[in-house]
Each structure stands twice: as structure tokens, then as C-alpha cells.
Amino acid sequence: xxxxxxxPQALSIQEGENATMNCSYKxxxxxxxxxxxxxxxGLVHLILIRSNEREKHSGRLRxxxxxxxxxxxxxxxxxxxxxxxxxxxxxxxxxxxxALIFGKGTTLSVSS
Amino acid sequence: xxxVSQHPSRVICKSGTSVKIECRSLDFQATTMFWxxxxxxxxxxxxxxxxxxxxxxxxxGVEKDKFLINHASLTLSTLTVTSAHxxxxxxxxxxxxxxxxxxxxxxxxxxxxx
Lengths: 112, 114
Known about the structure:
heterodimer; A: mainly beta; five-stranded antiparallel beta sheet; B: mainly beta; four-stranded antiparallel beta sheet; 11 strands
């Protein structure tokens, strides 16, 4: 079963605006990862945040993690049309060993 | 960086035939490989976990006799969709891991069964 739930399911913004996506999960984790997927393509790993970390930055990306609320957020600043994609959060499933279990994803559309 | 190669990227097959998808780790030994399925506009669903030299562990609801997984070496795992039907049409993605969560994904295989 799916571990994560992202919201919103779809987000449309203008270039230059910030995009915030949230992810909630159900079980304990040791890390949470964000991935990006362009339509019909493979996954691109964006960022990993460990359970003992609260915030992490990578370029225009900022990820936060609140283990008490079992939630994470991904912020993309100064968005570009090329950021248009689906974004998924994924966590390690203890039940399935080291497999990543994905949320439903947020589809981001950035218009120029 | 580590690369996982998945082949083929697209395949169209007739109903009732079998299709084999390969997943190779190119520059590291993958002790564990994972197979995911993704339906249009949906998330990735874990199908099975395979460890080299042992039987795969299938997620609930995934038919092991229909989706045959072989992990014969530390660099290759295969997924065979047997007696494919149109409802098996999907995007299949593999992931390979040395230790820890599988952060290295193949590019995916789009299977269309006609």
C-alpha cells in the first residue's frame, strides 16, 4: 500500500513564483526522498532528508521534515517552465526492506 | 554516478504473449533490485523485491506466476510478464540498491499489450 500522500495533487503557477508541495506518511522512517518525473519518463532523484534532519537545501529546492507530524514539504523557488513535472515523495518501507514506497505525487505546471 | 539501465524502453506485444524486461546496474553490484509499476497519472507501486540468488518477495496483490522475477547476478534482474493482457499495459520501472534505499532507477519500460 502507498505510504505517502502528497498535496496538492495538482498545482499550476507562473514562472518566477514559488511552488510548495507537501507529503504526509504513515509509518516511521529513516529518511524521506523527493523525486521528479517528467511525463512518461523515469525518475530523477532530487533530495534526501534523514529523520534526524529538519531542513535541507539543494539549489532552488528546500525540503523540510517534521517527524512528529509525519510530514515533509518541498519548496521550489523561482520556478521555471522546465520545472513542469510530477513530484513524488518516497520513504523506506521497513515492511519491504529497503524498498522505496511512493506517494501519489503532485503534478506541477509552470507556465511562462 | 551509478547508472541503472533498463531495456527495452518501449515494447508492444500481442495479448497472450510474454515480455521480458531487463534491469542492469552498470557500475555497481546491486544486492537488491526493486520492480515498480505505474499506471497513467498514478504513483509508482512496488511490485516486488528481489535479492540476488533468492526468490523475489512480492507485494500483496501481485501475482508471482504472472510477473516472474529473476535476479541471477549482482548486476542483472529480469521481470517477465507472462501471458500479457491489455490490463498489464503500464510503465514498469526497476530500482537497484547496494545498501540502503534504492535511489538508482532505470528509465522505465512502457509496455503496451494489444
